Amino acid sequence: MNGTSTINGRHHQAPSSPILVLEPVNDTFAIKSLELAEHARVKIGRQTGVATAPHPSNGYFDSKVLSRVHAEVWSESSKVYIRDLKSSNGTFLNGRRLCPENTESEHFELNQNDSLEFGIDIMDENGA
Fold it and tell me: What sequence ranges are listed for the domain FHA (predicted)?
């Protein structure tokens, strides 16, 4: 594929920004594809109101394991980076936590097919 497509007879250039695709491991949300424009920071976090309502094009989720502002992802010089923003339940890259609880991490480069997990499952005293 050459990175272009034709729609209704017009030639369109494929997006030049990287796309972060977030897929659920347990059907808790629909797949999200987030375009990462150069130097624009995309926040990952928990829904707290109308402005942060989950949508396929944003990084907000209806999840109790996420902090309000959990992490951020961005593109710089054709590379994609992630940083944990002092979350309680952690951000995990390929199974490794980026930083201790309530500590801001350094930035980490993301590569194609990396596994990202935001938060850890927590149980209440009834096992729910």
Answer: 42-98
Dist CA 84 CA 120 (whole Å): 14
Spatial contact of 99 and 66, defined as CB atoms under 8 Å apart? no
One-letter identity of residue 76: E
Dihedral angle sign, alpha carbons of residues 119, 125, 127, 128: negative
pLDDT digits (tens, 9 = 90+) for 23-56: 887 777 888 899 999 889 999 999 999 999 999 8
pLDDT confidence of residue 108: 97
What string of H, E and C letters represents the secondary structure of the chain?
CCCEEEECCEEEECCCCCEEEECCCCCCCCCEEEECCECCCEEEEECCCHHHCCCCCCCEECCCCCCCCCEEEEEECCEEEEEEECCCCCEEECCEECCCCCCECCCEEECCCCCEEECCCCCCCCCC
Tokens of 59: 């990084």
Contact 81, 93 (CB under 8 A): no
93 in Cβ contact with 116 (< 8 Å): yes
Asked whether the beta carbons of 13 and 3 are under 8 A apart, the reply is yes
